[in-house]
Amino acid sequence: MSSVVNPENEEEPPSDAAIVVKLMRLVENSDLSFYQIASLMGTSGTILSMWLAGSAKPQPTNLDEIEKLLSPQ
Hints:
Blueprint: E1 4-5, E2 11-12, H1 16-29, H2 34-40, H3 45-53, H4 60-70
Antiparallel strand pairs: 1-2
Helix pairs in contact: 1-4
C-alpha cells in the first residue's frame, strides 16, 4: 500500500478513501465474486456496495479487515 510520509519521516496510514479505491480495484480484478469478497471481510454484499458507491464509510474494524484482505500474502 502506498502511504504518505510526514515531515518527521514517519509513515501515515492510507486514508479511508484510498483504501476503498484499492478495494474497488480488488473487486473489479478478482476471480472471486462480489459476495465472496464481502464475506471474506465479514460483511454483506449490500454494505460492500454502499462502501464502493460512497454512500457509507467502513468503520475502523472494517478498515482493518479490508487492509488484511488487500495485503499480499
